[in-house]
Amino acid sequence: MGMDIKLQMKLSQRLIMTPALQQAIKMLPMTRMELISAIRQEMEENPFLEEASNEDETQETDAEVARDAAEVPEEPVRTEFQEDAVMKDVVQEKTRTDEIDWDSYLQEEAYDGGTGEGYQERPSLENTLKGSESLYDHLLWQLNVTVLDPKLNEIGQIIIADIDDDGFFKTPVAEIVQESGATLEEVTQVLNIIKRFDPTGVGAADVKECLQIQAEALEPDDPIIREIIAGHLGNLSERNYAKIARDLGVDVERVMESMEFIRSLDPAPGRTINPEKAHYVEPDLYLIKMNDEYHVLLNDDGVPRLKISPYYRTILKGKEQVQESAKEFVESKFRAAEWLIKSIEQRRQTMLKVGRSIVKFQRGFLDNGMSHLKPLVLKDVADDIGMHESTISRVTRNKYIHTPQGIYELKFFFHSGVDSYLGNTVSSVRVKEMIKKIVMEEDPKKPATDDKIVKMLEMQDVKIARRTVTKYRKELKVPPASKRKKIY
After folding, report:
1. For residue 381, pLDDT beyond 80
2. What whole-number distance in Å separates Cα of residue 306 and Cα of residue 297?
């Protein structure tokens, strides 16, 4: 059977994402700071983009933008944004540019740090900014003032470099011996010195050793505490105080006193030097209540208002006198600028629509709090504003909204529901709050088991399985009843 090559024409439809659509989708999940950074970068690369002032915004007209966009033959671009109504001629721009005294400009404005008149010496950037001290820097400073021998100091630097953020040294000593070329005795000597550094307990191999170091430093004359840490941490976590008392030959009250001391120790001493940084949230949307109606406002603080540069727009009008390569460059940059402005506005409008839709569905929560939070899924909002679920997911990612009940992530309002005996649906977030309240109000000597929590929720019209209660309890990081029970 012979094989031959033929040419065939096939007509088909395919969904192809244009560069403008790709840019719009890319901007949807951006936070406000990421959007500002992206706009600034694009302004540096695209000469057509300028930041509009308040005066420029009052002089913009839609008609002129449409007329300029229609002059691009390859791909006419439409825009909803206003551009400058006042246009200056290229000749006037060139004349004004030629008349600039650049020497005077550079001396008086552009370069304040010269050696001429009016020079003011300023401190360097390194002298004006202060960074937080890391655990590595803190330990290295102690090493340099404690270990003066160059060889031992080098070993100490290698050990400190392997101490993690919690303050633990988990690297096998044999590896340090091989890396430093020192003896086992020298490495052990330096490691023991580091274990006496601040914070107390740093350099330990595990939590048990860390607690032992702290106990020896704070309570050197109490052997019971050290014996409990050395051999009874498992019984301590299980609250089996009677067994610990029998094994050590002491009464339960003595074990309880030791337990309170051990509880005060720090199982991760490195965190005192390397604390977790606080992440401050700036809302992307604000809710303002006026005349019993909620108005959604977009936080545009710091986001540049863009416009097409009048100077380069004039060049675009006279592109017949420009070389072909330059003409393609000018037209591509103009289209990119129009796409960016349009994408930013689409992002703004989409966020406002999503915010208004959330207000529509969660009005009860906004007025009365957590007890009135309703179940909501992405599809509900997507159907309400006529968009796809993926678009809603992108818009709500890493975005926050300021409400009368506090600041919440937009994702907070989207969650599943739990059925009730009256045929209604209760928000899973609300059910978690109910479980948390039950645990907080329970008797410490008789904590509520998961089965008991199920029965208590049934009395509040919540139809829920025990495994679901267990799942929600673990998500709330609430230990089981056996762990919450206070025996003494």
Report:
1. yes
2. 20
Give strand pairing partners of 400.
409
- Cβ-proximal residues to 331 (8 Å cutoff; 6+ apart), any chain: 72, 74, 316, 319
pLDDT at 59: 55
83, 69 contact by CB (below 8 A): no
Six-digit token pair at 57?
A: 């915004």
Measured between alpha carbons, how far is 197 from 218 in angstroms, rounded to an integer? 14
CB 231 within 8 A of CB 262: no
Torsion angles phi and psi, residue 163, rounded to 5: -80, 125
Domain spanning 417-484, CATH class: mainly alpha
* Helix H or strand E encompassing 417: strand 417-419
pLDDT in the model for residue 87:
36
> What is the full DSSP assignment across 458-473?
HTTT----HHHHHHHH
Residues 6+ apart with CB under 8 A from 82: 57, 60, 61, 62, 64, 65
Give the residues across from 50 on adjacent strands: 307
Reduced to 3 states, what is the DSSP secondary structure of residue 299? coil
DSSP state of 110: I
In sequence order, the 6+-apart residues with CB closer than 8 A to the CB of 246 are: none
Task: Please provide the DSSP assignment of 39-107 as one string.
Answer: HHHHHHH-TTEEE--HHHHHTEEHHHHHHHHTT-SSS----SS-EES----HHHHHHHHHT--HHHHII
| Segment holding 406, helix H or strand E | strand 406-409
Element (H, E) at 272: none
| Helix runs in 134-232, H state only | 135-146, 150-161, 173-180, 184-194, 207-218, 223-231
Cα gap 172→335, rounded to integer Å: 60
Number of CB atoms found within 10 A of residue 383's CB: 12
Residues of the chain with CATH 1.10.10: 417-484
* pLDDT tens profile 18-45: 777 787 888 888 888 888 888 998 888 8
